[in-house]
Amino acid sequence: MENIALIESFSEFKDDKLIDRVTLMAILEDVFRNALKKKYGSDDNFDIIINPDKGDMEIWRNRVVVADGEVEDENSEISLSEARKIEPDFEVGEDVSEEVKLIDLGRRAILALRQNLISKIHEHDSTNLYKQFKDLIGEIYTAEVHHVRPRVVILVDDDGNEIVLPKEKQIPSDFFRKGDNVRGIIENVELKGNKPQIIMSRTSEKFLEKLFEQEIPEIFDGLIMIKKVVRIPGEKAKVAVDSYDDRIDPVGACVGMKGSRIHGIVRELGNENIDVINYTSNNQLFITRALSPAKVSSIKIDEEKKRAEVFLKLEEVSKAIGRGGHNIKLAGLLTGYELDVIREGNVAEEEDDVELTEFSDEIDAWVIDEFAKIGLDTARSVLKHTIEDLVRRTDLEEETVQDVMKILKSEFEA
């Protein structure tokens, strides 16, 4: 009865941890074998019989009968006189099976058994959790903000599992409060000791791809495929799409009437600007589309070096480069080519033009860098724009832009 009672007390863990009875019994056998090894040095000559339906178990120790005074290993051998106390008709050479009661292991051993069982169950939980979330890598998952730390947000799902959203995996504009629901993809599952750490990401290209799958029925149904996604989280993204059916406009289907379909995705990503582009295997055409909204005059491709010279009219250069250089950077990542912008314009003016860096003694370097970010690196390229336009497209104050314009104009007037 002691065995049954102890097994039943151990089985309380089954309900708390939602472990099926068979798994619990397997864990129990492992725990008891460890206890037997500690007490007797080996568990090889023990039989552990577990009945998962009744929650009952028996431990039997098997030993060989040897003549009195010839016992060399007390765990595997028993003297004839001791064997006959169990059954009076035992003879030398016969096998003796004797039941071991848990109480025989000692109170301290039973307490150790319980601690070992708890440890094994936690290990089992961790293994199952690791496998569960390993299968969810790359999938969208929703969890609630439990608490916010400077470098990480801790989330908890409906099952009480803890999920980590590091700062570098958050969109720059993300701001979370306790109780907020957060969506992202499960990016990785790492084992920290025996405990799995589940990492969520909102900056991954895969997150944007999965949002498209959720929001665009034609992508979910496989009528439209996403060929490639590149993004600068919270700023800009480019998504190349293609259709299996010539009757379906993949870009129109993704964007929807007046942007209705893509609006929810943009909002989820903190108003990230998303360009949806028709994929083509024609590299020249693909580069042209990738540099939208700029209008490309011509392209010269070097396939060996994976570089392309893109010829643009002067007024299209800043559009191609984009704010902070984002547009041309993403176009390069999307197409797989290093893109060099070549300006087309009035030859006389270009010969007369002056690089902005030549004015470094009058204009601060960081101001020159701000103009360069929007594709303006010569005096005439800056002077072609209005002050209002330059203030809007850079992080410069109006007064600073006015000063720069005055310096540049004086160069040509002189």
Automatic annotation (TrEMBL):
Superkingdom of this protein's organism: Bacteria
Localization per Swiss-Prot or TrEMBL: Cytoplasm
Protein's UniProt keywords contain Transcription: yes
Keywords per UniProt: Cytoplasm, RNA-binding, Transcription, Transcription antitermination, Transcription regulation, Transcription termination
Residue ranges that the Swiss-Prot or TrEMBL entry lists as coiled coil: none
Gene3D superfamilies named among the record's database cross-references: 3.30.300.20, Nucleic acid-binding proteins, NusA, N-terminal domain
Ranges for domain Transcription factor NusA first KH: 202-279
InterPro entries per record: KH_dom-like_a/b, KH_NusA_2nd, KH_sf_prok-type, NA-bd_OB-fold, NusA_N_sf, TF_NusA, TF_NusA_bacterial, TF_NusA_KH_1st
NusA-like second KH domain location: 285-347
Record domain Transcription factor NusA N-terminal: where: 6-124
Subunit (UniProt): Monomer. Binds directly to the core enzyme of the DNA-dependent RNA polymerase and to nascent RNA.
Task performed by this protein: Participates in both transcription termination and antitermination.
Entry's family note: Belongs to the NusA family.
Protein name: Transcription termination/antitermination protein NusA
Organism in which the protein naturally occurs: Flavobacterium azooxidireducens
